[in-house]
C-alpha cells in the first residue's frame, strides 16, 4: 500500500520571529489587515515580550470561544495530538501563549510526514501566528482574502482545486475549499468583527428576531517536495500559448490547515480515540472535508427549525379567537408581512448556498478522480496496479461518506423549499383576509359618506341649496 515516506521539514519559531513578521506587513492585502485587526494596527508597537499577552481573549470579548487542534501524522497514518489544551473546557479562556507553544514547533521528533492545524473562532493573534508559521506552505494572503473578505461570493462555497496551471509555485502545490454560509450565533458568543451580523440589543429584539451571522471557513492542503511532472493544458485558443503546469506528488509530505469562523460552538472536535489512518495528505483533506459538510448540515437544519418555528402558529390558535384574528388580518406594523418576507427570502438565500456547496463537491471530484486517474488533481502514480486498486478502495470509503453528505444536503434543500411553500400559503391567506377587511372598511366608509351627504343637505343654509336666479335678459335694442 502506497504511503508517505519522506518526513516533514523540521521548523521552529520564536516570539522574535513572530514580532518581526508582523512588523513587516506594511503592504499587507486588505483582507489580511481585516483578519489581523488590532494585531496589524499595533504591529509596530509590540515586541517579543508583549506580542502574546496583549491579545489574550477576555471573558466578554469576541474570541472567548477560540479553540484549536494540532495533529502530526507518522508513516503509519495515525494522527497524534500535539495540543495539550485547546480551550474547550467550560468556562476556560484560551491563552494566546498556549496556542503559540504548539504552532511554533513542527515535527520536532523528526518522524512526522503530515501535520493538521485546525483553528476555530481564531483570535487575530492566532491568525497572525498562522500567517507566519504557514507562509512557506500556503499563500496566506490568498487564504485570508477568501476567509475575511467582506465582498465577493457572499454565502457561496467555492472549490479552488485546479491549481496545476497557477503561475506561482506556492499556489501550484496548494488546494483549498472556501465555505461561506450562515449560522445561528451561539448563546453569549459574538461573530468576528468582519462578519455580517444583524446585531440587536436584547431589549430591542422582537419575537421575529433570529441571531444569524455570515460564517466562513477555509480548508487547505499543501503538498511538499519538488514537482513530480509537468503537464500541458488541453485548451487551445487562437493567439494564446498552450499552458504548462506542474503536478506535485500525491504522496508527498503535507500540511493541512483548517480555519473555521463559526461563532456557534457547533464544531466537530476530532476524538483522541479516533485512529482512522490518513494514508496521505489528500486522504486527510477529504476526511476533513466530510467533517465540514456534516457540520454545515447540522447548522442548516437548526436554521430551518428556527425559521419554521417562527412562521408556524402555536397549536392553541384553534381556541383563541384573538390569535386567529392576528394571524388572518395584518396589523398597523405589518408584523406578519415582514415576518413572512424575511423568512421566505432568507430560506431562498440559504438554498442558493446549498446549491453552491453541492456544486463545489460534484464538479471537483469526478469519476476519474476517485479512480486515481485525474489529469492534475492528486493522481495515483500507478492507478491500474493492485496497489493503485487498494488505494482506490480506501478512498471509496471517503467517497461514500461525502456522497451521503450530498444527499443530506439535498434533503435540507427540499425541506427548505417545503417551508417556503408553506410561507407562501400563509402569506396569501394573510393578504386575502386583510384585503377583505380593507374592502369592507371601504364599503362602510362609502355608506357613511352617503348618509353624511344626505344629512348635510338638510341642515345646510337655504342659500346653498336653492336654485340660482335666471340670467338677466339683455336690454332690447331699438
Describe the structure.
The protein is of the alpha+beta class and 478 residues long. It has one domain. It has 13 helices and 11 strands. Strands 3-2-5-11-8-7-6 form a 7-stranded mixed sheet, sandwiched between helices. The protein has a two-stranded antiparallel sheet with strand order 1-4. It is globular, with a radius of gyration of 32 Å. About 1% of the residues have low confidence. Keywords: Coiled coil.
- Overall tally of structural domains: 1
The biggest beta sheet is recorded as: 7 strands, mixed
In percent, how much strand structure appears in the residues?
5-15%
Coarse shape: globular
Rg, alpha carbons: 32 Å
Task: Report the average pLDDT across residues.
Answer: 83
| Separation of the first and last Cα atoms | 134 Å
Q: Count of DSSP helices?
A: 13
Give the uncertain stretches in residue-range form: 462-468
Pfam families: CorA (PF01544)
Keywords: Coiled coil
Coiled coil: 392-429
GO molecular function: metal ion transmembrane transporter activity
Primary descriptors:
coiled coil; two-stranded antiparallel ribbon; 11 strands; metal ion transmembrane transporter activity; 478 residues; globular; seven-stranded mixed beta sheet
Give the helices and strands, then pairings.
Elements: E1 11-12, H1 15-23, H2 30-36, H3 38-41, E2 67-73, E3 79-81, H4 96-103, E4 105-106, E5 114-120, H5 124-133, H6 140-148, E6 158-160, H7 169-172, E7 174-184, E8 212-223, E9 227-232, E10 244-248, E11 254-261, H8 281-311, H9 321-328, H10 335-364, H11 367-370, H12 386-459, H13 462-465
Coiled coil: 392-429
Keywords: Coiled coil
GO molecular function, one term: metal ion transmembrane transporter activity
